[in-house]
Amino acid sequence: MSSSTDSPTLTTETTQLSPQPDTETAKPTKKITLKSSDNQIFEVEESVAMEFATVKSFFEDSPSTDTVPLPNVTAKPLSQVIEFCKEQIKFKANPDEAQKKKYNAEFVTEKSDKDLVDMIPVANYLEIKDLLDVLNQAVADRIENKSVEYVRSFFGIDNDFTAEEEAALRREHAWAYEGVDED
Amino acid sequence: MEVEELAEYVLVEAPDYISDLPDECLACIFQSLSSRNRKHCSLVCRRWLRVEGQSRQRLSLNAHSDLLPLVTSLFSRFDALTKLCLKCDRRSVSIGDEALVAISIRCRNLTRIKLRACRELTDSGMAAFAKNCKALKKLSCGSCTFGAKGMNAILDNCPSLEYLWVKRLQGIANAATAEPIGPGLAASSLKTICLEELHNGQCFGPLIIGSKNLKSLKLSRCSGDWDKLLQVIADRVTGLAEIHLERLQVSDTGLVAISNCLNRYFPSRQNPGVY
Which segments of chain B are extended strands (E)? Predict the structure, then answer.
């Protein structure tokens, strides 16, 4: 890229860029700035930010603020949550249950275990119910029908039961019926 | 070999990132799991045990008499249960009144209970249970041996009862000693009554007749003559939307009475009995 000030490509780009949003959407979309706990700035459209119940009520309480601090949220899961909500807004505008289901399934499938689990407290804090449901189910699916040992290593959790306690719990469990009376 | 590799990988790589998850999020994950998988998860660590126990609403237990010594620890762990199933196999000795009362003290918010082949439970156990679990909405009992007193205690103490299913209740089988059942407080809330394979099931008559808001009545394989009772039911229970009669001794008299009520729906009428 040249640094010349009279570059013809640059000027055409700017003239092309500015009218585009105006023709696509009649009114200019308002942007809202979110700041993660690790001081990263995210500019999102107002409609996306309003998907976050926490942000929405923040704005209702103090409408003049331009930056919403999110002290419990780090940048990586936040960017993924924003990505999800952007898509959900498209589905809100053009409802297509099959496509939405497909997108939601792909969204979680491609995420690592850590990414999935990291997004849950974020979705919980921002009160995004749809995402929370999707994430909970996805994590549940990944530990479904796995042994206790597998679940521990999956999440990197140390077993803090004594051998006696674990044996006692397993004896208690012998009393529980499985797969019946789910009505 | 594979397991070893996994364990090593985890030891080196995986941070314990789920420990940052708030309890309520963890509970939501558990809610997406089947009962069997919830059980596995409760063994993961102390925190998961606590969260799983506190967030569990439904539990099914083998109601063998040996359950009694475990009642305290089990039910202090599961302190938010609303649905409980106690099921004994036919050849075993079931839990007795002591266990049921101990359970009822710890599960005061129960809305549904299912009892199967709990033959050691008596009227007094059911009465104590009814006093402790007044929020009951659904009672389903099969192959139990308590009688009219126990059933009446439930009906008198549980003003929210909507659903009653009774199969093979041996305590009412003796017509000479059986007392009438109902109507009790529950009569105004009951929407569904199902009676199956009862001897002397007619003693539920006062309950059925008194249940002014009853929508659905199912009588199946209950011995004895039902004509008289059906006539009164047709006369008094005006809101019935569904009557299911199966293998019942009913003559034209009973059927005519029932059919005189308008807007009724008969899903099945198999009456090989006396015509």
Answer: 58-62, 83-87, 112-116, 138-144, 163-169, 192-196, 216-220, 242-246, 269-270
